[in-house]
Amino acid sequence: MKSDQSVGRIITFGDRPVQKKTCPSPEFSCLSMKSDQSVYRLITFSDDSTENRGVQREGSEITGRNMETSVQNLDYPSYPGDVPVGGDDTLHAFGDRMKQDDLATTSQTTLALSCHQKLKFTLGEKCQKRTEGILKTGSLVHLHEIYTELYIVEEGSDEANKEHEVSQIEAASRRRDTQEIPIKCNDILKHKDKVIRTVLTKGVAGIGKTVSVQKFILDWAEGTANQDVLFIFPLPFRKLNLIKEEKLSLVNLLHRFFTDTKNLKPEEFHHNKVLFIFDGLDECRLPLDFQNSESVSDVTQSASVDVLLTNLIKGKLLPSALIWITTRPAAADQIPADCINQVTEIRGFSDLQKEEYFRKRFREEHVAERIITHLKSSRSLYIMCHIPVFCWITGSVLERILGESEISEIPKTLTEMFTQFIVFQIKHSRKKYQEKGDVDHEEAREIILALGKLAFQQLEKGNLIFYEEDLIKCGIDVREASVYSGVCTQIFWEESGLHLGRVFSFVHLSAQEFLAALYVILSFIFKNKNVLQRQHFPTKSTLSDVLKCAVDKALESETGHLNLFLRFLSGLSLESNQTILQGLLSQRVSTSHNTEEIIKYIKDKTCETTPEKTINLFHCLNELNDHSLQQKVQSYVNKETIGGSCDPKFCPGQWSALAFIMLNSENQLEEFDLRRYHQSEGCLLRLLPVIRTCRNVILHKCNLTGKSCAALASALSSNSSCIRELDLSYNKLQDSGVKLLCDGLKSSQCKLEKLGLECCSLGKEGCTALTAALTSNPTHLQELNIKHNKPGNSGVKLLQTLVEDPQCKLDKLLID
């Protein structure tokens, strides 16, 4: 930079030799960096992928990716009023700034641009290629070729959802909210009404959070989006965990992970727009204490990693930085609500996006159509395809089966699908190892058992990411971990973390849950041991005892974290699935198991547990290929017994079976009228999962009480609720019942627009509760009917103030 020998020449850093071209403008010269005579000279730092380097575009000296407009609107507090122009490959954006007389400041700006270019190149190289499923295996393809836009929406709350993730997926598949406006991945940090600093993005495992981060970074690196950001620092929690014991400054932390920025001065982090991406909060094993952690405000001040993170997120450290955090829903509450400006949710693929995915993956149209048709025929499989990773799993299995000369039976249940997937992947990898003489049948089985034990123990703890100490506790020799990931190439994998240590994981939570269930089955078969109870059984005991124990444990779980595990365990108890496993285990599997016994046990439980947990029990019956209870209820539907009124002799289990049938029907209800079924509280409570999915709910004259109000409040406050109109007229709810209902109305998740409480014995206390609820959540309810009640003048005045309040949407109050 001290000489003038580069004047008028374009310098390309690519694979070709440096080409020189005389600039047609003779007046340019270079005297020093203090002058403005170097403005508009073009220096290209080519950051193209390896295979495209040195390929010149026609009519341009710029090689590789053409990153136009990549430093537009840079926010430099040191240079107020500047509006830079040009692209990443030019110094145009810094032209006016070069006029500054402060040589030190100018050097820092030049250095920032240089580091910016290097970081873009490095991150672009890392993010542009990937393979589906497990990284590092299979052939790499460009992300743009396989990326399918995900359905992302803004959420009104960062409240953690403790439901099992499959339950959330099933709820998402039924959610129909026309008011929700999808957000594009590249707009995740933007909002039309408010300034965004910190965004929390939720999504279940495998839904596409990490891929969305990758796509965001790639588009930034290619210069097509978010060019106001000069530096992006992706810091996954799984890697931050590896240095949890160290103390270092924020500057040193970034130098550790991003060597391209090692020459940046500390002040550059303040003078430039910086984005930190913390991917995988649910994988965090750092003690994030937002209340008691020490205060750090200097980027050169050393502290533990967890302290640096809490201060960054709170805005104490580097308050000008943008923060993007991704997490599974259950871990979202680790970040205080007052630290988050916007909450978004990735809901995976819509039905149209599922089809787009399979048509992209299978270029032969008839293959794609056959796969889509088959998946639609199995509602449970089709719903799971909301998860991109599950699309990859089903695609892998169905592609192999449809490609065989003798087509075997196509999987129709989750257990059948995963059994085929696991067996095929392990057989394929084992064959590779056997050719080398490394792994035999017995060793392969021991590897599966060890991985199953790891899956089971970590599932109980809620961990999806494991470290060397976790493997050691399961009896896995970490020196042989590469053999485990080799035998189970597409299932279990390891990732190095900058020479800091190794990180292990399964391809998806569902694969971990399947292996955990397989471990329980194999432990009983080979060791006559029920690992759920940590004890040995007498010889005469059966697999039914293990399954009953699993059912009880799953029902005891408040979060339902064992739901999918139980479904897999139920399916693996069938002889048909065990037959498939025999080839894998090279040993005949024999169990003394009465399938009818466990089916009866599950049916009995459907009458005893909550409606939500009952839904999973019906999924378990499906995995056991038992549809008798559903068929019995379906016969009533077919005979139009359900019309004026349903059979009052229906037991709770039969009402739940009806709910299961309705939820898994392709034709979703827009309106739910309880009078079509049975006008009773018992019927309402059992059909509550269905009620959540309907827009208009009519409970007129249904003999409901406060117990119903509490249940409805829970439904209204659920983030899966679709209810927009609710008519509770002519039920003796009284003030006590209305107060319970208000617990749901005040929730930020409640989107109710019309509420009917005509003739519900409503008094002043009920009106007070309604006023408080609508003050707390004023943006949705537009119409309230309280005719034929006794609210008194004071109660009416309270509600009238809401109508007059410009902040409240209520504009129609119906009273006598």
Please sum up the structure shown.
This protein has five domains: 1-101, no CATH class; 129-348, P-loop containing nucleotide triphosphate hydrolases (Rossmann fold); 350-402; 413-585, no CATH class; 704-816, Ribonuclease Inhibitor (Leucine-rich repeat, LRR (right-handed beta-alpha superhelix), Alpha-Beta Horseshoe). With 816 residues, it is of the alpha/beta class.
Describe the structure.
By secondary structure, the chain is of the alpha/beta class. It folds into five domains: 1-101, no CATH class; 129-348, Rossmann fold; 350-402; 413-585, no CATH class; 704-816, Ribonuclease Inhibitor (Leucine-rich repeat, LRR (right-handed beta-alpha superhelix), Alpha-Beta Horseshoe). It has 30 helices and 23 strands. The strands form seven sheets. Strands 5-12-6-11-9-7 form a six-stranded mixed sheet. The longest helix has 25 residues, at 103-127. It starts with 10 loop residues before the first strand and ends with a strand.
